[in-house]
Every structure is written in structure tokens, then in C-alpha cells.
């Protein structure tokens, strides 16, 4: 498992959140959990959602499905609860890091 690997969501919301992306640094690979951000199916988001496509909520295509990164629902998941790896967003890693920076920045006071 590597940072920015995409895994299937095995949880109860897998229809609307088909995938999660690992955001945790490899420095913590020995830990038994991974920090993941949900990748929400774009079609289930309310029409005209202003956040879609912003720095906080970039859009990705995973296995032919348009999904939106949703950092506000970031969660720690036990390794045995992660579904199979289906993709990697490593080439878009900076975009994901920028979204997390937007979430965590103190510039808004």
C-alpha cells in the first residue's frame, strides 16, 4: 500500500463512495491503520454543487467513474477494512496534497 493508492470501499456507503484514496505518508507504514479520503461518485452530489472541481474538491476519473475528493470526511481505516487496490492517483498527488492543505490551512483565521 502506497500513498495515493485507490482502494474499493467495502463499507455501507460503497454505492455513493465507491473508492477511497490513501493519503498517509509511507513514514507510517508500520502502523495498522491508514488515513483515507473518500472519493464520492460525482453523480450523487447535488446539482450545482459549488465545491465540485475546487481546490478542496478536485475531480478524478477512477475505473471510468467520475469521483470527487471529499477531504472533510477523511477517516482512519484498519488495514483489513480496505478493499482491493484498483488504481493509483500518484500522478495527481500534488492536487490531493493541495486539497488537504486547503482543509488544514490557518490562513482563514
Taken as a percent bin, the fraction of beta residues is: 25-35%
Radius of gyration: 13 Å
- What's the β-strand tally? 7
User: How many helical elements?
Assistant: 1
Question: What is the rounded distance between the termini?
Answer: 35 Å
Could you give a short account of the major beta sheet? Answer: 7 strands, antiparallel
Compressed to H and E, one letter per element, the order equals EEEEEEEH
Low confidence ranges: none
- The dominant shape is globular
SS content category: mainly beta
Helix content: 10-25%
The whole-number mean of residue pLDDT values reads: 91
Verbal overview:
By secondary structure, this protein is mainly β. Helices cover 11% and strands 35% of the residues. The chain is built from one helix and seven strands; from the N terminus they run E-E-E-E-E-E-E-H. It has one helix at residues 93-104, and strands at 5-9, 19-22, 33-41, 59-62, 65-69, 75-78, 82-88. Strands 1, 2, 3, 4, 5, 6 and 7 form a seven-stranded antiparallel beta sheet that branches. The termini are far apart. The relative contact order is 0.26. The mean pLDDT is 91.
Helix and strand topology:
Layout: E1 5-9, E2 19-22, E3 33-41, E4 59-62, E5 65-69, E6 75-78, E7 82-88, H1 93-104
Antiparallel strand pairs: 1-2, 1-7, 2-3, 3-5, 3-6, 4-5
In short, what is this structure?
Helices cover 11% and strands 35% of the residues. The termini are far apart.
Features:
mainly beta; 109 residues
